[in-house]
Automatic annotation (TrEMBL):
Keywords: Cytoplasm, Methyltransferase, rRNA processing, S-adenosyl-L-methionine, Transferase. Specifically methylates the pseudouridine at position 1915 (m3Psi1915) in 23S rRNA. S-adenosyl-L-methionine binds at residues 71, 102, 121-126. Its EC number is 2.1.1.177. It is found in: Cytoplasm. GO terms for cellular component: cytoplasm. This is Ribosomal RNA large subunit methyltransferase H. InterPro entries: Alpha/beta_knot_MTases, RlmH-like, tRNA_m1G_MTases_N. Gene3D superfamilies: 3.40.1280.10. It comes from the Bacteria. The keyword Methyltransferase applies. Belongs to the RNA methyltransferase RlmH family. It comes from Anaeromyxobacter diazotrophicus. Coiled coil: none annotated.
Amino acid sequence: MKLRLLAIGKDRSGLYAPAVAEYGTRLARYVKFELVELPEAKKHAGTPRAKDEEGATLLAKVDPRERVVVLDERGKEYTSVELARRVEGWLQGGRDVALLIGGSDGLAPEVLARADEKLALSRLTLAHRLARLVLVEQLYRAFTILRGEPYHK
């Protein structure tokens, strides 16, 4: 299985990118992992058009055979152990998985419609770059749980 994280925007602050890269490297020990950063619709930021443009950009990068999991505040929340079981289900399903994080304007209706499932990291609103870090860390944690490794205490 290949696991891809498709995310709108880059971490220009430099705060999160090193940690995302570290957990991405750790995650790659268990699964083929790729982070794909896509451009923000800067010209139309804050308008419905931005969300639509970013949505089209995301969907253009999704393989039709991939299971699509979107991060959405209305998605299902899991504990770390429950997420590990969900990841195990993805592994058993045999399809590659694309996890999608939209830009600051959220996800376009077309992206939500394409989703096979919706995942919420928290009921709190997280900065999108922070959400990316939390997701990659939790995916790494999920694999350590599935392998019975001591990372998850």
